[in-house]
Design goal:
mainly beta, 4-stranded antiparallel beta sheet
Length: about 110
């Protein structure tokens, strides 16, 4: 029921991004507390905490199949996470060609 509002309690700092899984059963939230959290949409239960970022996580997006999701953090690392196991599958580190300058993504997208 989309008319019901739910408060998802768990992050210790500001939430920066959320993404619904393609099937609408779960959502993932990213936060300044350096974590992502997977939630059951129907009852608001926290299903898993994803740790590993060393700074705030700015954005999150689910893969089209809903099994993985990607994050981009202020630690300049983009990560691919397995939603069921909680493991980090891959890290992509970003630095620009300009000396002493790093960058982080402000948005992410999967290619179908």
């Amino acid at each position: 029921d989309t008319s019901e509002c739910r408060e998802l309690v768990g992050h210790e700092r500001r939430v920066t991004s959320i993404a619904y899984s393609p099937d609408g059963i779960t959502l993932v939230s990213a936060s300044f507390d350096h974590t992502c959290r997977l939630w059951n949409v129907a009852n608001g239960t926290e299903l898993r905490i994803f740790r590993g970022a060393t700074n705030a996580i700015g954005c999150v997006v689910f893969s089209p199949d809903g099994h993985t999701f990607a994050t981009s953090g202020y630690d300049n690392i983009n990560r691919i996470w397995h939603g069921f196991s909680g493991s980090c599958l891959k890290e992509f580190r970003g630095n620009s060609v300009a000396e002493d300058h790093t960058f982080g993504a402000r948005s992410l997208a999967y290619s179908p």
